[in-house]
Write a structure and sequence with these properties.
The protein is α+β, with helices and mostly antiparallel strands. It is about 15% helix and about 30% strand.
């Protein structure tokens, strides 16, 4: 007697060799698995699904490589700014130097105006050959400077001299001021040490006097 196979001895759909119900393997619609293939929910990459839910790479491709920002404009801007600052410093310095020289500043002579009260006496130095007493006032002046001097006295007839750096008389005056007073003006041609000499016109001239003198750039 041939044994009888139980009803549940084979998988659903029949014995081996019988296709599963629904037309393929595995159950539910063939291969790949239900839902669109393998991997789940999206198929192979060529079909738009690996990785899941969005293709490979996600959402349509790799992001574009970051673009390096150009440094040319930055360098150019910095360079222009530095040049502008340098130009301001250079021209500003030159302007200050020019003003300083015009005003007698810096390491050169300094412009000035002075008033002194003096007196000619027998103890003062005397001019050669005529014995007239005098007082000397020395100062520094630049080239193309204007030197002025004004001497006044009610005690004697005044006389003024201006001596250059080499001691040679550049200008002199007897009565260029009011009455018997002296006044002179001279424009220098070189820088150096100058001297205003307060003197008397007469050999016997003695007494107090007022001297105003100065040197300034033109």
């Amino acid at each position: 007697m041939k044994p009888t196979m139980p009803m549940n001895a084979f998988p659903p759909g029949g014995p081996p060799g019988t296709p599963p119900p629904g037309g393929g393997y595995p159950p539910g619609g063939g291969y790949p698995p239900p839902g669109g293939g393998y991997p789940p929910q999206g198929g192979y990459p060529s079909q738009g699904g690996y990785p899941s839910q969005g293709g490979y790479p996600p959402q349509g491709g790799y992001p574009p490589p970051p673009q390096e920002k150009s440094k040319t404009g930055l360098y150019a801007g910095i360079g222009c700014g530095c040049l502008s600052i340098l130009a301001c410093l250079v021209f500003g310095g030159l302007g200050l130097l020019y003003m300083s020289r015009q005003n007698g500043g810096g390491s050169g002579p300094t412009s000035f105006d002075r008033t002194v009260q003096g007196e000619l006496t027998d103890a003062d130095s005397r001019l050669p050959n005529d014995e007239r007493p005098y007082d000397d006032y020395t100062f520094e002046a630049g080239s193309n400077w204007v030197v002025t001097a004004d001497m006044q006295s009610s005690a004697f007839d005044t006389y003024l001299w201006l001596l250059g750096p080499d001691g040679v008389a550049l200008a002199q005056d007897d009565d260029g001021g009011e009455g018997l007073n002296s006044r002179l003006s001279f424009t220098t041609v070189r820088a150096g040490t100058y001297t205003v000499r307060a003197n008397t016109y007469s050999r016997t001239g003695r007494g107090p006097y007022t001297l105003h003198y100065g040197a300034n750039p033109r």
